[in-house]
Structures are given as structure tokens and as C-alpha cells.
Q: What sequence folds into this?
């Protein structure tokens, strides 16, 4: 990155604060000591390099957030760079390992959500997402957020909650009820609405994709994983 970018320290500072959880452009600019009026251009260049994604909440033109696209950079700025000196000296390794183990599920949850978002077409082909993803995205506003929203305007909408965890059937149903209540604030509902809970595994399901009542669907990702890969292979490379 140092060879490809001018002012690499500024880009490094921005990526570090994004890894710390500052997702809005303004928050990242202030934390990195960069003029908020110019920070968008820095992130545009990082997006051109496929290091980050800039996204706006579905249905809004403002409120851009920054997400890592490249998992190598995300891991480096989350775990390696903050501990680089100690790692190079071989000190405090047990403390660093404890920190990684304590936070790795939260770290993996974000990666899992991105994987699901990247394979909405395959999930639709497998029946795990009821609507073809012609219009989709994330949604957040005033502290509330929904992982993924898929819309067929004027007809139907699917709201997806993605969980990096092992849920019981009762937990999946409770998650679906909370999702149903949460999306009432989005303003994105259509005439027909679906509520989809996708978890790493849901051992209580009798089928990998199963209706759990009230327009809700539960998906055991571990059971559809190989089918997802096959669907992606059959679909061919993305443009």
C-alpha cells in the first residue's frame, strides 16, 4: 500500500480507526486527524483498491459507512498492527492470544454477514431467500439497523438477520420476532414481507431451510454451505 498511495500514513490512520469500529466518514476523519471535508476522497481511493466498501443505508442518500472488503487488511489492522511491537519482540503473546480468542466471534460475525450478502443470488436459488436480489442493501438509522434487506418494489421485501452462532429452534423464533418488530421502523416494508434468520447452525430444524411461522424462515447455513458453493460455481464468475 505504501508503494501505491501518496500520504500512506493518512490511509493507515483511516484504516486503523475503521478497524476500531468507527464506521461513519465523519467519525473516522476526526479520529484519524483528517479534515472531514476531504476524507471521502481518501476512502474512494481505498474502495477503488478493493480494500473497503462505501455503503449508504437502503432508501437513503446520506449516512455513508465504511466496511472492510479485504479481510487481510481487516485482520492486520484489527489484530496485528496494534500489537506489532509486542509480536516482533515476542512479548505478551499470551495476552494477545487471549484478546484474539475473546473477540474472534465478533470479528467473524462481520465476515459472515458479508459472505451472506455476497451470495444472495445463490441463497435465492436454494430457496433460502424468498426474493430475487435485484435491489438490496443494508439499513441503519438512528441507532437501529437491519443486516440485509432485499426488495421487490411494490410487491415484497425480505429482511435478513445473520447470526454467527448456533441457535436452537426457539432462539431462531425469538430472533425472527425481534426482527419483525425492528423492521417496522425501516419504512421499507411491502405488501408481502418475509423475515429470514440465517445462523451458522440451527440443529433443531428438520430441514436446512424451514418456515417457522408468521412469515419467518430459518436457515441452517452449515447445512446449505456445499449447495451454496455449487450454486456459485454453476453461476460462474461475477462481473
A:
Amino acid at each position: 500500500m505504501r508503494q501505491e498511495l501518496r500520504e500512506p500514513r493518512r490511509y493507515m490512520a483511516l484504516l486503523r480507526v475503521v478497524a476500531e469500529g468507527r464506521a461513519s466518514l465523519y467519525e473516522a476523519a476526526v479520529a484519524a486527524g483528517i479534515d472531514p471535508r476531504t476524507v471521502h476522497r481518501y476512502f474512494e481511493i481505498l474502495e477503488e483498491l478493493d480494500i473497503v466498501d462505501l455503503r449508504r443505508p437502503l432508501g437513503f442518500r446520506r449516512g455513508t459507512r465504511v466496511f472492510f472488503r479485504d479481510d487481510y487488511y481487516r485482520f492486520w489492522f484489527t489484530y496485528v498492527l496494534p500489537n506489532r511491537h509486542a509480536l516482533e519482540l515476542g512479548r505478551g503473546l499470551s495476552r494477545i492470544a487471549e484478546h484474539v480468542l475473546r473477540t474472534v466471534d465478533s470479528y467473524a460475525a462481520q465476515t459472515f454477514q458479508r459472505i451472506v450478502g455476497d451470495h444472495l443470488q445463490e441463497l435465492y436459488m436454494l430457496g433460502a431467500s424468498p426474493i430475487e436480489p435485484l435491489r438490496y442493501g443494508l439499513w441503519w438509522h438512528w441507532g437501529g439497523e437491519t443486516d440485509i434487506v432485499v426488495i421487490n418494489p411494490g410487491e415484497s421485501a425480505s429482511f435478513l438477520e445473520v447470526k454467527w452462532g448456533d441457535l436452537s429452534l426457539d432462539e431462531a423464533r425469538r430472533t425472527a420476532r425481534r426482527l419483525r418488530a425492528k423492521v417496522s421502523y425501516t419504512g421499507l416494508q411491502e405488501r408481502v414481507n418475509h423475515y429470514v434468520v440465517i445462523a451458522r447452525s440451527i440443529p433443531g430444524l428438520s430441514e436446512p431451510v424451514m418456515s417457522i411461522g408468521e412469515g419467518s424462515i430459518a436457515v441452517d447455513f452449515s447445512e446449505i454451505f456445499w449447495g451454496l458453493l455449487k450454486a456459485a460455481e454453476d453461476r460462474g464468475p461475477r462481473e
About this structure: The chain has a mean pLDDT of 92.
